[in-house]
Design a protein that fits this description.
Shape: globular
Strand order of the largest sheet: 5-4-6-7-1-8-14-13-9-10
Largest sheet: 10 strands, mixed
CATH superfamily of the largest domain: Thiolase/Chalcone synthase
Structural class: alpha/beta
Number of helices: 14
CATH class of the largest domain: Alpha Beta
Order of helices and strands: EHEEHHEHHHEHEHEHEHEHEHHHEEEE
CATH topology of the largest domain: Peroxisomal Thiolase, Chain A, domain 1
Length: 415
Amino acid sequence: MTSVPDEDRIVITGIGLAAPNGDNLGEYRAALLEGRSGVVPFETRYMPPTIAGVCNFDALKYQKRKEIRRGTRAGSIATYCAHEAVASSGLEWPAVRKDRVGVYVGITEHGNVETENEIFEISQFDYDTKVWSHHHNPRTVANNPAGEVTLSLGVTGPHVCIGAACAAGNAGFIHGLQMLRLREVDLAICGGVSESIHTFGIFASFQSQGALARNDDPQKACRPFDVNRNGIVVAEGGGLVTLERLPSALARGATIHGEIVGYAMNSDATDFVLPDANRQSECIQLALDRAGLRASDIDIVSSHATATEQGDVEEAKALGRVFADCPDVAINNTKSFIGHAMGAAGALELLGNLPAFGDGWAHATINLDDPDPECPLPQLVANEPRRLDDVRVLLNNSFGMLGINSVVIVRKFED
């Protein structure tokens, strides 16, 4: 384990999330251990009936109706998750210096929902732009979700959205950690959010690629590593945490959910869509090296697998290269429960596994009825949770289009 000065050790002290099968960590974790999916029938403009991972959090818990109407779905998800993270952190928020707080939110894309809706609206009025919303610009700027958080919480420190495709959730954590180590902020609210199900374009695009999942039973549609997988289930959601430097967390007696001890990002530089196992395995190894860990030190690997044919094969190759000699590692997949939450995927997948430090369970990969021989991963936790002797280190994979890869490693906190 690499020795890091205490003032550079970054810990997770608060968690807020909105997932298709849970509105807080307790609900979400219970659903994952009980095998409850959040994928349901869904309809969107111009598309035949489809399926999606749909969140049901109470947006009015932290926003007024006027704020919801003026803002965006991604902003609403981010606001809910940020408030929940702050509330769970135990921080005395009125006393926190808001100019020393940074908000770093990973996103896949932003603005498509609002643009599609506005174009549809003016199409009903012979494309008269007089009916175009004057809220369009602030809704569609790329920093909107993070900016809405600062407006709601009164944060006057920096805020940015990190566009990192489906690696964005991890990228949000990484950026928050880096800003804390650079002393740019004293508290980072970070992670990822996605409103993807509210844009028909993403469904249409995956369908045109032959990559949109189909199944008569929505809850069985997302089938990572299964030979009968047939594509992605699009989902919305969000996961944000409060990160602090260790001395700050200890000084106020905060509950510490875990310590980020390693991370890495790299690029395939090979294709717009198709992933590359070589670069993915290099990213995993770089994160391990930075953490001063061996592959055998990892207890749970949270896989990225999206249930696309080639994507799952490439990740299985990458995992096989790194963990071939680690029979005791438990490999699982969260998308099988909630679908692919795009910019929020990596965040939700890490947060769903964090409670394993306390309860000792690796949640399952559901719908894994017939493992694909092209994805030979004997360590996969299939259909039922696996009890582990001890859970001390988690590794979270998150990969995205244009060949962006990210890995975050979290260790159970120890003084």
